[in-house]
Amino acid sequence: MRTYLVTGGAGFIGSNYIHYMFKKYGDSIRIINVDKLTYAGNLENLRDVENLPNYSFVRADICDSEAIVNIFEENDIDRVVHFAAESHVDRSIKDPGVFVRTNVLGTLTMLNAARNAWELPDGTYPEDKKFLHVSTDEVYGSLSNPEDYFYETTPYDPHSPYSASKASSDFMVKAFMDTYHFPANITNCSNNYGPYQFPEKLIPLMINNALHGKALPVYGDGKNIRDWLYVEDHCKGIDMVQEKGRLFETYNIGGHNERENIQIVKTIIAQLREALSDEDPRKAAVSEDLIKYVEDRKGHDRRYAIAPDKIKAEIGWYPETCFEEGIKKTIRWYFDHEEWMAHVTSGDYQKYYEDMYANRG
Q1: How does pLDDT run across 224-239, given as a tens digit for each residue?
Q2: Model confidence at 361, in pLDDT bands (50, 70, 90)?
Q3: Which of 123, 195, 247, 302 is the most exposed place for a label (fewest CB within 10 A)?
Q4: 3-state secondary structure the chain
Q5: CA 51 to CA 188: how far, in whole Å?
Q6: What is the distance between the alpha carbons of residues 192 and 136, in angstroms, rounded to a whole number?
Q7: What is the CA radius of gyration of the chain?
Q8: Which are the catalytic amino acids?
Q9: pLDDT by residue (tens digit) across 151-167?
Q10: Taking 60 as the threshold, does the pLDDT of residue 360 lie above it?
Q11: 280: which residues sit within 8 A by CB, 6+ positions away?
């Protein structure tokens, strides 16, 4: 049974990845989920797998080298999938130090622990040991020419403390691959959306605010462009890179779904109005009148767009979910999980760990 160590598995993409892996591989794999459970880590995301015999959760900080080393010593880890990171640009502008600590030093801690556990006396590594570092397209900076795209060869040009910290963590992984011949890959993805996303991010924020008749804040003129990737497609890409990707390579994973932010907001309004019944009192309040343009974010990149040519050519991955389909599925998920959203926005979800784990005998 192959054992996966997933960092940040209680977060948005990490929890979706765990669901995807169990759906695909069932009881033929084992997953150890390591998460610090900050504001974005929510164990309610994993309720349907928490009692599986081949799943376990460890509450730990990836910067805690002793805790991470213990996990490697107590388990024969075959694969590491490293999601754990601070990821919200606005928060990074307010407190860059937290992002450097988690994203850079935390990644270094993970790399050191995996290398020490896996490296053989002759400096080689067992064939099936692999480390996958999940990163972002924001490390490439901003595109000004509408015909340009991010490729794996695009020079790094980060503009926010968040993207700078992720660029630094990417370079640390690259250094381990070059210096120690450490068996790793890096993936750089575009903006993810889908179930379980914390409502500080654009799509769940707009869904939640609209359903409560609150203002829909849009930065600047709303014409910043992002490439949107449905989270399940991303999870499939990560798995395929670990199974088929060439070691030491970087693979860009993009959705080929470019949209201006204001388009996203208007699409959500339209889809919500279509989904709400005429008898639902919330329907009357959901309109474009809720849109409120606010002062632009500092250092706001204008456009991101990934060309996933390499991963398609080498591995056969491509984004299967068009935005029109993905946003409908996403809105439906939030409709069906209003209790989850209520817990997240009230902070009650943080009590779940105490109820589920800390108060067990």
Answers
A1: 999 999 999 999 999 9
A2: very low
A3: 123
A4: CEEEEEECCCCHHHHHHHHHHHHHHHHHEEEEEEECCCCCCCHHHHCCCCCCCCEEEEECCCCCHHHHHHHHHHCCCCEEEECCCCCCHHHHHHCHHHHHHHHHHHHHHHHHHHHHHHCCCCCCCCCCCEEEEEEEHHHHCCCCCCCCCECCCCCCCCCCHHHHHHHHHHHHHHHHHHHHCCCEEEEEECEEECCCCCCCCHHHHHHHHHHCCCCEEEECCCCCEEEEEEHHHHHHHHHHHHHHCCCCCEEEECCCCEEEHHHHHHHHHHHHHHHCCCCCCCHHHCCHHHEEEECCCCCCCCECCECCHHHHHHHCCCCCCCHHHHHHHHHHHHHHCHHHHHHHHHCHHHHHHHHHHHCCC
A5: 32
A6: 10
A7: 20
A8: 137-138, 162
A9: 999 999 999 999 999 99
A10: no
A11: none
Dihedral of alpha carbons 271, 208, 300, 295, sign: positive
The reported pLDDT for the residue numbered 307 is 94
Among all chains, which residue has been given the structure tokens 């960092």? 7
- pTM score above 0.85: yes
Q: How far apart are CA 193 and CA 292, in angstroms?
A: 22
| Residues 242, 336: Cα–Cα separation, whole Å | 33
Q: How many residues does the chain have?
A: 361
Domains of the chain with bracketed CATH: 2-358 (3.40.50.720)
The Cα 279–Cα 207 span in angstroms is 19
